[in-house]
Amino acid sequence: MKVLLAGYNVDTEALKDCRKRRSALTPESIAAAYARISRSAKSVDVLRKDTRQEVEKARKSNRRIIFYMGHHSIAEHAVFNFDIIGISRRAIEELEKFRLCSYTEKSQRYVTLKGDYVVPGELRNTQLSREFRGIVRRQNALYVRLYDKIKAYNTHASSKLAQTKKGLRTLENLAKEDARYILPMATQTQLGATMNARNLELIIRRCASHYVQEMNELGMKLYRCVKKVAPSVILFCDANDYDQKTYSQLRSYARTITGKTRKGKRGDVELVGHTRNADAKILASLLFRSTQWDYAACMRAVQRMSQKRRIELFKKACQYMELYDAAPREFECAQLTYSLNVSSACFGQLKRHRIATVVCQEYDTGVGYTVPESVKIVGEVKRFAEMIKQTEELYHRIEKKYSGVGSYILTNAHRKRVLLSVNLRELYHISRLREDSTAQWDIRDKAHKMTRLAKKVMPVTTQLLAGKEDYTRVYCKLFGKKPRITEVPEP
After folding, report:
1. Residues 6 or more apart from 159 whose CB is under 8 A from it?
2. 119-137 in b/e burial notation, b at 16+ Cβ within 10 A?
3. Which of 135, 181, 298, 480 is deepest in the core (most CB within 10 A)?
4. Are residues 16 and 77 part of one domain?
């Protein structure tokens, strides 16, 4: 794994000064200057000048404010960019649990993979390492076979589309996104990550406490990149009991709980909780924002409305909403909680919705795996299932010796259970992005089921839920006219 500090924010005046004479370029001076705003009568630009000229004094100030006064938010003014290269797909899932950061990741849907993978540190120099490498090689060989067969089928089935360069690339990408289901989570990838110092510190600390060596290595390398550049805003970096022991002890305690568990086939998308009387609460919030009434009066007004009047109020709030607009903030006043059973390939996209609350279990071979329809069409189901069987046999042997490490050998097809809690505003965003025809079929299916369930419990305020391409039709049905923007403009 390689971690490079690609950039960080610095005071523009410091850049000018650097051309004249050597001076410290650090994001700490901005953090220190902004920290002084609340207690100084000086202009902000003057405060920045002061901290640029006295970097060591600024660092002492940062430590005092963060550690002794508890104002950790000043660290958010220091921002870093990282190139993270040669990290596993499995470790990426752990990294992207940190929601208030930005990530752009190499996509297995658009890049033809060459078989690069990470061997977990726990397995190196063991007998299991040789078996691990053998299974990964076979998984990658099947990936190539599936890609070639699905691409050939797509080209034949859509011969007209294949005649153009763009169309052929689309068909190739569709083959890649289905062939990758047999690839392991040990597959190497890379990403660009942007985060402020407060979140970076949390990531480094959690990495130090993690049970997997690759995450320990990631945290150490992130820290090495920034410790000399910004030592005053990265303070609490050591492993601790809270991060190391909380969930392991919860797992141990859970095993002591007796009682019958309900078994049987359950759906892959279930609505397990939602805000009661959600439509009324959202509409009352819209009235609250638009009047000087208290909330109770707004709720009474909505409760007296007929369904027709409620729809009129909803339409007033959304009549100018274009396909790129977020739903009104008042839509955050209603919550939906879903229980999902998703493949690793699907979860890789779902986890990117960072405003949502995503609580997930470890991967579990007992909850099954997903087989793309194209694998069935090209007659490769038997070979796919045999590879899954071999993978799971090794997974269980690894787990017996190194708990938590076995998931590296599991594939993008393997599933996990996820508890997803979203407000209605975020569901609009998920629907707009993931129900579109350009979205990958696995997450498109889950998003469609989520919106269908939401419409049953919030029939008024969910009327504009739709993917980008379908938004014009849905809008036209509700308003009797087209929105001003009817398609995504070409770049």
Report:
1. none
2. bbebbeeeebeebbeebbe
3. 181
4. yes
The pair of three-digit structure tokens given for residue 274, joined into one six-digit string: 């939602």
Q: At what angle do helices 278-290 and 307-318 cross, to 10 degrees?
A: 60
The residues facing 335 across adjacent strands are 423
Q: Does some domain include residue 136?
A: no
Computed over its alpha carbons, how large is the radius of gyration of the chain?
A: 26
- Rounded CA gap, 83 and 183, in Å? 23
Q: How many domains in the chain?
A: 3
Q: Give the pair of three-digit tokens for residue 89.
A: 């797909």
Are 358 and 452 part of one and the same domain? Answer: yes
Question: Other C-beta atoms within 10 Å of 217: how many?
Answer: 17
The DSSP output letter for 339 is E
Q: How many angstroms separate the CA atoms of 58 and 55, rounded?
A: 5
Selected catalytic residue, list 59, 206, 425, 434 = 434
Three-state DSSP at 468 gives helix
For 83, the 3-state DSSP assignment is strand
| Residue 269 within any structural domain of the chain | no
β-sheet with 102-105: strand ranges across: 2-8, 79-88, 188-196, 102-105
Q: Cβ neighbours of residue 69 under 8 Å, at least 6 residues apart? A: none
Write out pLDDT tens, residues 382-434.
999 999 999 999 999 999 999 999 999 999 999 999 999 999 999 999 999 99
Same domain, 17 and 59: yes
**Spatial strand order in the sheet of 269-274:** 269-274, 335-343, 415-423, 357-360
CA distances from 89 to 94, 117, 207, 419 (A): 9, 9, 16, 21
- pLDDT digit string, tens, across residues 130-146: 999 999 999 999 999 99
Count Cβ atoms below 10 Å from residue 264 Cβ, excluding itself: 4
3-state class (DSSP) for residue 139: helix
Helix H or strand E encompassing 435: none
**Distance from C-alpha of 192 to C-alpha of 87, rounded to nearest angstrom:** 12
Instruction: Please check whether residue 309 lies inside any domain of the structure.
Output: yes
Residues 119 and 133 sit within 8 Å (Cβ to Cβ)? yes
Token pair belonging to 405: 């490490």
Q: Which of 36-40, 211-215, 295-299, 346-350 has the lowest mean pLDDT?
A: 36-40
Which amino acid belongs to residue 56? Answer: E
Tell me the whole-structure pTM to 2 decimals: 0.90
